[in-house]
Amino acid sequence: MNILYNLILEKDESNTIVIAIIIGIYKAIQGFKNYVNRNKEMEKKIDIILNKLENKKDN
């Protein structure tokens, strides 16, 4: 009985570790996507500001 309990416990620990790794990878990908999207938005805002400054400079 003790051996069976140990086998079940080891299997549960392995599954828990795999699930934790998958969740960690998913969160890392989400964080990277958010970082890229935030940078794209900042680039757009910077371009708008630069265009406005160039227009003022031309006038």
List its traits.
single chain; rod-shaped; 59 residues; 1 helix; mainly alpha
Plain-language structure description:
This protein has 59 residues and is mostly helical. The chain has a domain at 26-59. It contains one helix and no strands. It has one helix at residues 2-58. The termini are far apart.
Helix count equals: 1
Mean pLDDT: 86
Q: From N to C, what is the helix and strand string? A: H
The strand count comes to 0
Shape: rod-shaped
What is the share of helical residues? Answer: over 70%
Largest sheet: none
Radius of gyration: 26 Å
- What kind of assembly state do the chains in view correspond to? single chain
Task: Decide which structural class fits the backbone.
Answer: mainly alpha
Portion in strands: under 5%
Which ranges are low-confidence, i.e. pLDDT below 50, for 5 or more consecutive residues? Answer: none
Ends distance: 87 Å
Keywords: Coiled coil, Membrane, Transmembrane, Transmembrane helix
Transmembrane segments: 16-36
Coiled coil: 32-59
Concise structural overview:
With 59 residues, the protein is mainly alpha-helical. The protein is built from 1 helix and no strands.
Mind sketching the topology for me?
Blueprint (H helix, E strand, L loop, with lengths): L1 H57 L1
